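TASK: fixed-backbone design
INPUT:
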């Protein structure tokens, strides 16, 4: 039987997709690249933003019209089951922590049954078959769930924190390296709270992973500033290891303490700034990525100006700007909402500032020479994208297949979101 799988959203969702694909292939299914070729369709959904949510609705409607067995997986299954079933009463459902049941769900759906797996039914998503989307990158889940209950977030539907055993994570990294991966992504909803429920922490995990005697790089996923405060010195020291990309994803969300309080983030602006300053003091070339939500309920013009001023001050290398969108199941939906035109205007103003900063930061890399790991194909023609030690994306043009190669490159030019380079 032939199965088509589509995935949207975060790296945790991609990891679930890879596991599902691996289990299906192990069970004798053939994976195909188009909906037209398939006997069964599976979509891993994401609902993190309103535009993404609307895209998921469109995709489900489109797949339903094909009159083929359909499995909807991912976060939308937990947040919007009734809506999904309104669009397709016969749809089978697979919640995020039930991906291990994909073969059972697939066989049932192909027999014309409606199969539903919603409850958490299994342990760590480790030591399972994988069909990797990118042979260079090994996505390794380190936990599921989180400790926070941010007022805007749907992620509690992935459950409370359940950290995977450190030794099992290390073994999963070794398996990825044995498969040929050279870039390891340690991922979860919040890497900062890893291990709090099992008597360990992120620092200990990173040390253990870096002890593996092979050449590879580690990208550390998102870390809530709330949890960095108490392990800041140890984390910075661990980041000095050459195997760890000098890249930190530290979401700010707002530079107004009032808004952070309404968001229930658990930290203040001062905490965020201190973390950034300490990292940059010890690792000056570190790449800082952050997230900002504009138009959160209660955000005044003064609150927004504070965010603009702080972004101008700290100059993140990457800023993911999101417009607040009402999600009926989150706590913030009960607060008085801002007009859509105000949210849109603020988002545009912040994004324009960020683009200016990105160019300024990227231009400082022009002339840099060093090692670059090619980890993906470019979007245009014979181009490739590599990452240097600071996880800066460098586009290289070559007719040769460079995927997975470590090359010496020189940065020639800077664009808004990437660098252009050549092999030397």
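OUTPUT:
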């Amino acid at each position: 039987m032939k199965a088509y799988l589509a995935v949207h959203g975060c790296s945790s969702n991609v990891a679930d997709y890879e596991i599902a694909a691996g289990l299906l292939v192990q069970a004798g299914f053939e994976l195909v690249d188009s909906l037209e070729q398939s006997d069964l369709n599976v979509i891993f959904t994401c609902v993190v933003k309103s535009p993404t949510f609307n895209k998921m609705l469109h995709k489900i409607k489109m797949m339903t019209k094909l009159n083929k067995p359909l499995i909807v997986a991912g976060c939308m299954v937990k947040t919007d089951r009734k809506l999904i079933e309104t669009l397709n009463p016969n749809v089978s459902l697979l919640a995020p922590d039930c991906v291990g049941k994909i073969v059972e769900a697939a066989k049932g759906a192909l027999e014309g049954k409606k199969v539903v797996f919603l409850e958490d039914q299994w342990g760590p998503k480790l030591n399972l078959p994988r069909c990797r989307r990118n042979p260079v990158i090994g996505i390794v889940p380190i936990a599921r769930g989180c400790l926070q209950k941010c007022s805007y977030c749907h992620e509690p539907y992935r459950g409370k924190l359940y950290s995977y055993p450190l030794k099992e994570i290390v073994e999963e990294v070794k398996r990825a390296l044995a498969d040929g991966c050279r870039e390891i992504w340690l991922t979860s909803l919040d890497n900062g709270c890893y291990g709090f429920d099992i008597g360990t922490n992120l620092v200990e995990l990173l040390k253990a992973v870096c002890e593996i005697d092979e050449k590879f790089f580690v990208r550390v996923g998102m870390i809530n500033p709330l949890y960095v405060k108490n392990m800041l010195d140890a984390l910075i020291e661990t980041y000095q290891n050459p195997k760890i990309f000098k890249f930190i994803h530290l979401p700010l969300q707002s530079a107004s303490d009032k808004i952070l309080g309404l968001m229930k983030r658990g930290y203040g602006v001062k905490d965020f700034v201190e973390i950034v300053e300490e990292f940059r003091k010890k690792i000056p070339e570190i790449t800082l990525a952050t997230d900002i939500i504009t138009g959160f309920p209660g955000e005044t013009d003064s609150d927004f100006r504070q965010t603009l001023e702080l972004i101008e001050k700290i100059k993140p290398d990457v800023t993911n700007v999101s417009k607040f969108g009402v999600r009926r199941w989150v706590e913030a939906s009960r607060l008085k909402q801002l007009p859509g035109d105000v949210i849109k205007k603020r988002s545009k103003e912040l994004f324009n500032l960020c683009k200016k900063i990105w160019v300024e930061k990227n231009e400082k890399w022009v002339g840099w020479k060093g090692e670059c790991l090619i980890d993906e194909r470019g979007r245009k023609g014979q181009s490739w994208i590599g990452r240097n030690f600071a996880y800066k994306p460098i586009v290289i043009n070559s007719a040769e297949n460079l995927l997975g190669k470590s090359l010496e490159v020189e940065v020639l030019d800077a664009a808004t979101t990437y660098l252009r380079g050549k092999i030397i």
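COMMENT: The two ends are 47 Å apart (CA to CA).
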